[in-house]
Backbone:
């Protein structure tokens, strides 16, 4: 009986790590394109810090979000040992790559890309044939 709880916990940990790796791929690709010395582990560390500080600073409202934006640029510049301008470019390219990956997954899975009050219509994969 206890093994089932262990298996669910192990599955949750594996799902967390896999989603963390997928979240880090756009940052890895954009930093690799601009610095040529990026590793996936650096991208995972940067994405962890960025998400952590987002949750911590979003508590204090819009000022926290503004601080988070500057902190995100500083984290990227520090981890990849680059200038702030290049860190901004890395962040912008990572956002574009993330949107492209999300659009591809939305098309493949037949789900809406952006949730809103009005339902966005996407074409399910079986209707494309």
Residues:
């Amino acid at each position: 009986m206890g093994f089932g709880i262990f298996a669910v916990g192990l599955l949750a940990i594996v799902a967390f790590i896999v989603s963390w790796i997928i979240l880090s791929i756009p940052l890895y690709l954009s930093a690799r394109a601009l610095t040529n010395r990026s590793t996936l582990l650096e991208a995972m560390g940067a994405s962890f810090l960025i998400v952590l500080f987002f949750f911590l600073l979003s508590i204090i409202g819009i000022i926290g979000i503004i601080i988070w934006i500057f902190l995100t640029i500083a984290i990227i510049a520090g981890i990849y040992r680059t200038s702030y301008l290049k860190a901004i470019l890395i962040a912008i390219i990572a956002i574009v790559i993330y949107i492209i990956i999300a659009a591809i997954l939305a098309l493949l899975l037949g789900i809406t890309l952006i949730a809103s009050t009005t339902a966005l219509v996407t074409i399910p994969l079986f209707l494309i044939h």
Notes: The chain has one domain: 14-127.
